[in-house]
């Protein structure tokens, strides 16, 4: 369902590859939502959230190093957006997921997809022009 299409490609292979993984993690969340066979998705949701947070930290660090290397002028505001994303993921109440699993998956998915799409299309394109 969620995949990195042409409109989200930056033209920087390494960054596109990392963005693709973020879309894959969003897709894993979506697949959990569709999974009717499994009534208790708690452990799977925890695993996806943990993986998303860890991978996002890795990816953001890579992006920030790239921005530093090209002396991107808006690195500070870009980094603030990265910090906001991690903070929102950190604020997820894992214990509450136990009781309203599908609703939490929907909420998490809505945030992740909206943020990733908006961030790539409006922020990442700004530093990519410095890289090329």
Automatic annotation (TrEMBL):
Coiled coil: none annotated. Belongs to the hemerythrin family. InterPro entries: Hemerythrin, Hemerythrin-like, Hemerythrin-like_sf, Hemerythrin_metal-bd. Keywords: Iron, Metal-binding. This is Bacteriohemerythrin. One of its GO terms (molecular function) is metal ion binding. Pfam families: Hemerythrin. Residues 10-124 form the Hemerythrin-like domain.
């Amino acid at each position: 369902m969620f995949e990195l299409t042409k409109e989200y490609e930056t033209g920087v292979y390494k960054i596109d590859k990392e963005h693709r993984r973020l879309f894959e993690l969003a897709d894993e969340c979506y697949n959990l939502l569709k999974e009717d066979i499994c009534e208790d998705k708690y452990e799977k949701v925890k695993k996806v959230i943990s993986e998303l947070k860890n991978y996002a930290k890795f990816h953001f660090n890579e992006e920030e190093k790239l921005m530093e290397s090209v002396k991107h002028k808006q690195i500070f505001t870009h980094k603030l957006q990265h910090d906001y994303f991690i903070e929102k993921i950190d604020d997820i109440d894992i214990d509450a997921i136990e009781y309203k699993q599908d609703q939490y998956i929907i909420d998490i998915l809505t945030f992740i997809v909206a943020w990733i799409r908006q961030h790539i299309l409006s922020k990442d394109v700004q530093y990519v022009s410095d890289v090329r």
